[in-house]
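[Q] Does anyone have a clean structure-token version of this?
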Amino acid sequence: MFESDLFQLRPGLSFRFEMIADGLPVMLIDDLYERPDEIREAALSVDYQPAPFDYPGRVAPAPRDNPSLNRFLGELLALVNSQYLPRVPIAADGKRITNFIRMHTDFALVDVHPDDLRTPQRGPHIDPIPIFGLVYLNREERGGTLFFKRVGEPVSASQKQGYQTQSGDGYELCGRIEPAFNRLAIYPGFVHHSAEIGSWVESEERFTSPRLTQRLMFF
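[A] Here you go.
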């Protein structure tokens, strides 16, 4: 299913930064994998379960003990520690975080119809970890990631309808990651954000051609 070299990286990769949310950086690496279509196909073939927390969809574990994936995770952890963390002010217990020691990765599908969203899923959220990463694995337009800042008191989420994709209800849109196919984005999970979900999710496309991302969590 997941071949040992499936997560081979494209040679000559480089990273760059874009600023969102009051000057906080997002790290971007384009054309990440050599075989992204095969990764998508393999990822869609595994069993998914309802996501924990308030993710509007389902998740599946990435393969364990896959040599190419583990090599990528090790390289990415070193890159984030050396190039991204120094640019992002993150503290725990009163001390600045200067080093992550491990990572977790999985695959995630967004497939919840707007009418079926639970109350916490209708507005921007903050991740339970400070730094988060996504690889966008969609050739069709399935939306990127939107960042918001609080402006006044937010409207109660129970009064909202559907996915929030623009300013309003106590939040101002202040940044966006373009969801280029096979793009890796590393961003601050402590900034309010949401997936940019369009009208496709109201049709059967949410099952036949769902929004797939590989999620990357740093600890």
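[Q] Thanks! Anything notable?
[A] The chain has a mean pLDDT of 94.
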